[in-house]
Specification:
By secondary structure, the protein is of the alpha+beta class. The protein contains 15 helices and twelve strands. A seven-stranded mixed sheet has the order 7-11-8-10-9-6-12. Strands 1, 2, 3, 4 and 5 form a five-stranded antiparallel sheet that branches. Strand 4 (187-197) and strand 5 form a beta hairpin.
Length: 469
């Protein structure tokens, strides 16, 4: 019995030891990692909640609901979300042409040694402390910043120095500097030095200026805009539920010098009927962004409604969703887009044609746009379009007249311009085919597709180059 008892006791000890060993293995292999993972997730959750609270405070301090669209536009144009060096160069070159000066060099900081050597770079980058904002920004922008973001310490306004060497009369150089200071993009003139160029009988000057950008500030402004659009679909839409944009490869983008100015008109469903105005080119704008992520989210939203938008890249990226030949019909289309949950603006387009093209090209170009846009306006407003023989004759005659004029002047047109005008002819033929397709299979999406092609037609006509071919 004693031996049996000892045997049982030994078995019990061994079983207990095995159980302890397996318990230890189970704890270290399963329980402890799960506990660590749980603790890590709880810590991450706390960080997310803290970030969300901080972000809400940022949004509250910005008070985006008190910013008018004009104020948002002024801030975005004045202090974009990225350096936008290409646009700075365009602005300087434009100012050069307007003042009769001659710019010999523009220096920026570049990303590689090879670029640095080729550009003779002398510029620097830095940041502006909040207590210095009032010294470098125009009063109107500083007032907005002071009222909307004065308590947001996380915001960093960055700058890039640019050095411009130019030649001209002292008076013209002074006008050049004055125009830089008055641009929508904030140019802060740091220094201007003059020297006499006896060989040319004029003055050489070196202008050192500072341009600004703020990634965080722009992101929050645009985030609020995207959130506002998303709220129209769902009041409980969160950042986690916003899908990554899918339209990078689909949307067509153009290099332009188009900017929003005082001639742009906001259109809502409450806007009274607009009286017809003279012939022209009137774009319907549905968004303005500096960050591509939010640009493409908005483009995706617009595409989901069957609209076929285009993007115009200047100091900011503007989304154009429609176009028409006069203010009244553009307003009708803007209201239709507004009813889908998008803020809309009408932008008269400044046509950049040569003196000769104004004589022979502009009249037939306007007639081609009017014949098609008047039809799409009616179809979009009424959600259907009757393609009558009269309408077909009107469109066909206008397109034939345009094709004929372009063909007759091809020999006297430069190759680059010839390519653009060739493209406008091709676009109009595509539109004619879609209109014929609509006659047999009506679908309002086809009318939006035509409007997208009309934007292509107009921007090519205007000399703007597609930048993502």
């Amino acid at each position: 019995m004693k031996l049996e008892s000892l045997l049982k006791e030994k078995i019990l000890i061994i079983a207990t030891a095995i159980l302890v060993v397996f318990s230890g293995i189970f704890y270290f292999a399963f329980v402890r990692p799960l506990a660590a993972e749980k603790a890590e997730k709880e810590a991450n959750l706390q960080r997310i909640e803290a970030d969300a609270t901080s972000y809400e405070k940022v949004l509250e301090s910005l008070e985006p609901q008190t910013l008018t669209e004009a104020e948002k536009q002024e801030l975005i144009e004045g202090i974009p979300g990225r350096p936008n060096i290409e646009q700075v160069i365009k602005d300087i070159e434009k100012t050069e042409g307007e003042t009769g000066t001659s710019v010999s060099s523009i220096s920026f900081e570049t990303e590689s040694e090879e670029e640095a050597e080729s550009e003779a770079v002398t510029s620097t980058e830095g940041t502006v402390e909040q207590d210095q904002w009032n010294k470098v920004f125009p009063e109107s922008i500083y007032k907005l910043l002071e009222e909307k973001v004065s308590e947001v310490k996380e915001f960093t306004v960055s700058y890039i120095d640019v050095q411009i060497s130019l030649n001209g009369s002292e008076e013209n150089i002074d006008v050049f500097v004055d125009k830089l200071e008055k641009m929508a993009r904030v140019f802060h003139i740091q220094n201007v030095t003059y020297s006499l160029n006896s060989e040319k009988g004029s003055m050489d000057a070196t202008v050192t200026a500072r341009v600004f950008y703020c990634e965080a500030f722009q992101a929050v402004i645009e985030k609020a805009t995207v959130a506002k659009v998303a709220a129209a679909k769902s009041e409980e839409k969160t950042e986690e539920s916003v899908e990554e944009p899918k339209s990078e490869e689909k949307v067509i983008r153009y290099d332009t010098d188009i900017v929003v100015d005082s001639s742009s008109i906001k259109v809502t469903m409450d806007t009274p009927p607009v009286e017809g105005e003279g012939k022209g080119f009137y774009l319907v704008q549905t968004g303005a962004y500096t960050a591509d992520k939010y640009l493409y989210i908005q483009v995706d939203n617009i595409l989901s409604k069957g609209i076929d938008p285009r993007v115009s890249d200047s100091s900011i990226s503007l989304i154009f969703s429609s176009i028409s030949h006069d203010m009244a019909s553009a307003a009708e289309k803007a209201k239709a887009i507004n009813s889908l949950g998008f803020e809309t603006y009408i932008m008269p387009l400044k046509i950049n044609l040569t003196t000769e093209e104004n004589d022979w090209l502009l009249p037939v170009a306007q007639q081609a746009l009017a014949s098609i846009a008047s039809a799409t306006t009616k179809g979009i407003a009424e959600n259907t379009l009757e393609v009558t023989s009269e309408l077909k004759d009107q469109v066909y005659s206008a397109l034939e007249a345009y094709d004929q004029e372009v063909s007759e002047h091809m020999e006297s047109i430069e190759d680059n311009r010839k390519s653009q005008l060739d493209k406008t002819v091709t676009i109009l033929k595509d539109i004619e085919e879609i209109l014929a397709s609509y006659e047999s299979e009506p679908d309002v999406k086809k009318l939006w597709k035509i409007d997208g092609l009309l934007i292509d037609y107009t921007l090519n006509l205007n000399g703007n180059m597609q930048n993502n071919r």
